[in-house]
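User: Structure tokens for this complex, please. No commentary.
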Amino acid sequence: MKQLGLFCLLLLSGFSAVSVNAQQIVKGKVTDFQSGEPVPGTNVLVKGTSRGTTTNFEGEYNLQLQQGDSILIFSSVGFETEEVSVNGRTQINVTLMSDIQSLKEVVVVGYGTQKKQDISSSVSTIDQSEFNDIPTSSFDAAIQGRASGLNISSPSGTPGGQTNINIRGATSISASSQPLFIIDGIPVEVKNNSVLSSNIQPINPLAELNPNDIESVTVLKDASAAAIYGSRGANGVILITTKRGSAGRDKLNIGYYAGFSEATNVPDMMSSSEWIGFLNAAAEFDGLGQNYWNEILGNPNNPDLPNYNVYDEILRTGTINNADISYSGGTEKFNYYLSGNYFDQKGIQVGQGYERISGRVNVDYSPNDKVKISTTTFLARGFHERTIGENDEYGVIVNAQAWDPRFPLVDENGVYVNPFDTYSWWALENPLLIAREYVNTSKNSRLQSSLSLEWYITPNLTFKSSGGLDYNSLIDRGFVPKGYNQTDIGLGTYGTFQSSSWINENTLKYTNTFNDDHFFDALVGITFQESVEEFSVIDASGYSTNQVISTAAAGQITNASDGGFRFGLVSYLARLNYTYDDRYTFTFTGRADGSSRFGENNKFGFFPSGSAGWNVHNESFFPDDSFLSTLKLRGSYGAIGNQSIGSTIAEATYRSSAGYAGEGGSSALQLGNPDLTWEKTVQSDIGIDIGFFDNRLEVTADYFKKDTDGLLLNADIPGSTGFRSLISNNGNIINEGVELSLNTINIESGDFRWTSSFNITWLENEVIDVINDGEILSRNFILKEGEPLSTFYLIKFLGVDPQTGDAVFLDANSDGIINLDDRVVAGNAQPDYYGGFTNNFSYRGWSLSVFFQFQHGNQIFNQSRYAFENYGTLKGGIPFGNQNARSLDYWKEPGDITDIPRPSHADEFSPEAQFQRFSTQYLEDGSYLRLKNVRLGYTFPAGSLERMKLQSLTIYGQAQNLLTFTNYLGFDPEVSTNTASDGSLNTLQGEDFGTLGQARTITIGLNIGL
Amino acid sequence: MKKIIYTLTAILTFSSCDLLDQELPNTIPTDEAIVDRVSAEAAVVGLYNEMQDGSLYGSDAVYATELMAKNMKAVKFQAVWQELGSGIVPSANFHVEDSWIAWYSIVNNANNIIVKVPGLNDVSESEAAEYTGTAHFSRALAHFELLRQWGEYWDISSEYGIPLPTEVATAPVVTPRSNVSDAYTLIESDLFKAIDRLPAAGDPIFANKGAAEALMARVKLYQGEYDSAYYYANDVIENFDYDLQEDYVDIFSEGTSESIFEVDFTQQDFSNYTFLMFGTEAEIVMTDEAAEMYQSNDERGVLIENIGNFFRCTKYGTNQDNGEGNAFVIRLAEMYLIRAEATSRNNGPTTGLPDINVLRARAGLGPVDASSVNSIADFNDVLTREARLEFPAEGVYWYYLSRLGKLEEVLNRESFRRIYPVPLRELNITDDQAIFQNPGY
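Assistant:
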């Protein structure tokens, strides 16, 4: 190639040498307008001839002109082509504008890329610039609200905690409804595998991936796009492409940001005097006389009454620090991208934190034009510090909110105050002690590596074989200190989890264009995957000290066990794209998957799909001067599967761990289901893409319907079998909805540019058919035909009787008793619609982006309120705990209209109960609109950069979760307590019991290019 | 290059067969679970493991009845205990749901042993007798517990029996409720086999002939067959090596000669009795009434102590983190009460008093004043009171209240609440013909 170029050059110079006419040499440099960096490989062509040259790695060129040569054409991939008149000059420097449109034209899809114009399925892409430097531990939290159809929520503010992600709705009950994540072609493990208490927010394995290593994210939403992933595609697929080097000058980038965070909202608790006054009111209503509590708790009117705000001690200003360094570059043959990252976040609650260190090496090598070898290697270490939070008697938040406000958490001698020395019945342990002294740490190490070989057999035929490894190792440590309320002897846990999965994929790709108009792109492949998981756990008790938490220091081991899971997948896949004349485009995809997870009779499944698109704007009848610049109609239909269930499910088994009195024993563990197979989702999608005014306004709208049949349902079975449930393919869920996204360039005048993008998804989720209609899930939820998943099942609160001030509940079964048998369908946790709205402004070096995110129509069962809004109940003669300041607006006299009943010391099981723990008293509207992110940045101009000897410099400040508009009474409306299992994420959403939600975070940072 | 690819593909295709057939390290396919002597013995051990279940003798089945009988009260958060403590038990109560399944798990495991063991080649006749004898005993125990908790066990002609599965469960099929008479027939037939096949004596943490006869005494008593109840209770008292402990407190040192059948727990394989009763998060404590009913010289009262503002029973230990206290399923004292009741029913109210007085004497009390016992009703009052004094926290007293129809009188509670409602989950997933709710609920 080089020789050929040299030959051309010689030829050219020779040719010019013989020219009798005056000859001229023109030289110059081609640079990128945006970055100021050289653009190597730019074609420089003399207009009207075939003569020309290309720029070298410094972006420089040198060209001999002939008589009459007047115009040069500069063209390079990804840039707009420039034509420049020579006008007798010998030095012509050119800056090229990047062609945003053309960059957007190629989209990463499963097993390849596709021109956007040829895509007939439903795919969203999120560019790295949209979530660059957002201060979250994992990228998935940062892409919330950025694409239609994609619903992401962070159930808590725990750093490094898990997110809940659904693409076009939850499709399953017992199996996972989370999408499949593919990073650089390797499917990755995203499950929480920590053995620590289920009442701790799970860790997010994706947190180990450095968000700044990501180049782009593609969301495959419909059947046609996701069917290439067959049995794992039903919940959609998120494809992550990491950065790679490209030919050109080496780039060294350094980025740093730091900031602080605080709770978005705090439910106010009563002060000491308010609390005593409130209890006195309760006693008076109950006929115990006035000022009943003064003698015991103190006179509320005494100005010296001690009063402490417990939040001041368990909440804190969180901090966040992130440093990135990357080095990339390459030559024609050899490209590289290396990066390192350090991230450290201290949560807004004492005792919570996450720290990450990661490194990446991505290398491509093309020894000749027939072969390309690529490797990616990613290594990361994450360290999670969590506290008991949710749904637990020893949760930090619940104990804090119940705290007797007359006492500090730590006394003047620095000793933790014992709640048993106070007048709070509920507070079991000092919350600061739980946050600080209980240990719940997880160390996660992750290695992902892949090697692929592409062989360009002919210009039309490419063979690719790749091998990848995803290795995860987790070490958990838990410790409950001795000598406090939970235990006299100390309890320790040590757990390990290791998973390694390998994948091998082999594909053959053929592309060709026949008769100029018929474009074919065909792919066939065979893939193999195996995953092996092993875990162990040791529980110990009887510690001599709280200083050593190792189980080796314990007096005895109370439990030691190990186990594991394995699973294998063998797949055959094929895809054909056909485009006719850029007008009609078709895609047919099929994948056959064999999985070890399923029953003897159903090991293999086949998942076909098809889609068609019509680029109306490319029709000859379409007027060239129309205000419509793009008009495309799309439709797709196909079947995709879900197999995200445990690896042990299909077979009837005995457990080998049923020992007794020191002898080993075995007993029945589960029934088997030899017919168990995939959950099958048939999805149809009709979409339209419209561009107005040269695509300054782009609209994409999709209607979709996901009909999921044969649900992998862990359904209740008759208890007389001796078993609780059996996984089977039963039931039907439909998700139906409309997605709309708009991208506009509102103003583009001179240096000022204002762009907007907006997306919204209306979604209706409905359980059509389940084997056990009316099955109650986890007390507060019901699985019912005609209702969505996560439907609440609660005792109905009818309000407060204005005459008596008593809370009134619906006696649904008319037995004269209000108890759990009176629960009714009460609402659901699924939003009616959700989305995001971004505005980007730029002026010269300044840029401002303002991003709102919203959801509407979902409800939250705020169970925490029963702990601190129980209207004065007593337990064992002691007040239940401190109360929410909101309760002060209670019913006071006949005629008062309020939903807060008169206070009373009666508990929930008494006929005089003013509250029912599991009632709609605590069910709230969870809708919110949130100013999710604001970022103001300044990029220094080229002139000042030269003085500083820098290639680029950007400084910025940004605010995450700056404002939240909601009626929700808890910490934060983006909350969920039940996150422990796949099933909980599907069916038990929208419950809040002692969960600390998202934080507001303010950061400043800078990015330097050297 | 091509060669490499061919080789690679060949290797991969070859290994792909294994990929789809993965074995897991900790489980055994059910059809390979009982195939020889070793595995059959493991399955028999597994029966006891099922009895250890937290919702059964692991604590809950015992404490639940104590809560309903107001010997215990629920003092913390969990609704499951508060509902039981209130005596108004909803059909969705977690304990009602969980224990129903757990009792049937014993039945299912026993069924597999009863079906499989006779066909095994390397099991001797005596081993087979012991294995199947244990399985029949376990099945009878579970069925009887189910019957007295969910069925109208006091009425032999009632339709409100329990499901009686006798086949190994291989599919999620419903076994409909039987009538009460069929339930007793199966329980007795299982017990006859157990009596026939089990060894005469041995460690009380395993089933033996004495345990089967003692259970039969109970079963006969519940049916009002007083002659037979007398026969079995008397046989256990007179013809086996059981002895009442001299000191009441010694009974709970485990494995004593008073113990007829107990479920063993160790520090590693623990029960929840102390976890629930002790420590700061104690969910369940004794009621003041249960603690204060003892005369000062009644030795039995010392095992209920006032610790941390609550009365707590120390029979199972006092360390919340150490659950090695055994469950006392049947002990000899109950045989005395059964013999006493059968005697009085057959021969007149006061004739049973001597057996009651044996227990009272052991506790350091004088005999019952016979002059105050003028009718069977009077005798029943004495008997019920003695059961309460003798067996606190052992899950016995409730069944005296229930069986003798004393709910309204003693607890001021509607009589239909003497048995649990059928779990809501069972009703929701089966048709009304097969599984139906108990009257009153």
